[in-house]
Amino acid sequence: MVPKKGVSPYRMRLHPHLREIPLCLRRSVSKASNMKIPKWVKRVAVAIFALVALLLITGFVFESISRYNAGKIIPNGRFAEVGHHRLHYLQKGTGSPTIVFETAFDPAGHLQWFNMQQVLAAYTTTISYDRAGILWSERGGNPKTGDKIAEELHLLLEKSGAPKPYILVGHSLGGVLTRFFVRKYPHDVAGVILIDSQHPDNEKFLSPELSKMVNQGLPGGFLKFANAFGLARLMFGNMFPQNGQYTYQNSIMPALLHKSAYAVLEEQDGMPSIKKEASKIRSFGSIPLCVISATDENRFDSFIKDEKLKAEMVAAWDKMQKDQLGLSAISRQILVPNSGHYINQDQPKAIEEAVKAMILTTRHKKPTPLGQLAQ
C-alpha cells in the first residue's frame, strides 16, 4: 500500500488491517480525519506562537545588550596567570595566616564571600576568587578536575604573594574541593573549615530515590538555551537576598551570569569524577578541622516536598556532616540553628567567629575558644 501524502508511514503501519474494521467505525474514522480545525483555534495558536517568538526575540536582544554592557564593568580585584589563562581574585587585609575561600557549586564565585571578607580583612589576609570560567576568570583549557582546580588555586596564591600558611574555608562543593588542596599541599595548610560541605560519598547515606533526586543536577540543554535568551537570569535571580547588604552582588551577578552559567555546567559534568576521587582522600592528618553545619529542619523545603523524604534527607545530611569530622585528628563541629545551606548568608557571624578562632589557633599554636579574637 502506498502511503497517502502527508500521513506518516509509521502511523500507517500501526493499522495494517484497517480494511477489517467494521464499516460504521471506518466511517467514523473517515469523518474524524476530515474534520476541519475551527478558525478561532488556528488564530489562538498563531497568536501564542507569535507571542512566544516576540518574547524570545526580546529576550535575545536584551541579553545581547546586557552582555555588551557587562564588558564595561571594571573587575573589583586582580588577576593571576595560571598557565595559559587568568583567574580573578579579591585580596584584602594583611598578615598571616591567609584565609582562602572556596565557593560552592554556583555561578556567584567570590561574590558569595564579599561581605564576610570585609569583616575578616580587619584581622588577617583574605582571598576569594572565581574558579575558571566563573565571573571574570578566564576559562582556560584545563579540565574541571579536583586536582587541576587545586593546582590553579595554589598557583594563584603563590603569585598573589599572600603569606602562608593558609586556612581553607570551603562551602558545599567547595568543601569537597579543599580535600584536593590538602592532599597536594599539606604543608601550606594551617586549618580547614567546612561549611555545610557536601560529602563525596553521599550515595552511601541516601536511599536510591533520594540519591537520584539530589544528584540529578541542572538541565544542561535547557540552561544553555535559556542562557541565550536571558531566561537564565530568572533561574538564578535569587542567589542573594534583595536587600541593601547585597547591593553590590546583585548588580554584578546578573551581568556576568551568561559567562558563569557555562562554567557551572562544566563543573556539573565533572562532578561525578571529582566526588569519586575526593572520596579517596580520607585524612587531613593533624591539620585542625572545623565542620560548620546548618540545623534548620526546614532547610530542604525548596526542593523536597515529600515529608518522608525530607525527614530522611535531614537525618542523612546530619550523618554526613558528622562523618567528615573523621578527616582530622583535631576536629570539632559547630551546629548553626535558624540557617539553611547558605550559612554565609543566613548566619555569617557563626563562620566569622570560627575563622577568628582558627586564626588565633594558628598564630599561637593552641586551641582557642570561639569569639575570643581581639578586635
TrEMBL record:
The keyword Hydrolase applies. Residues 107-233 form the AB hydrolase-1 domain. Keywords: Hydrolase, Membrane, Transmembrane, Transmembrane helix. It holds the Pfam family Abhydrolase_1. The keyword Mitochondrion does not apply. This is Alpha/beta hydrolase. GO terms for molecular function: hydrolase activity. InterPro entries: AB_hydrolase_1, AB_hydrolase_fold, Meta-cleavage_hydrolase. The chain crosses the membrane at residues 44-62. PANTHER family: SI:DKEY-122A22.2 (PTHR43139).
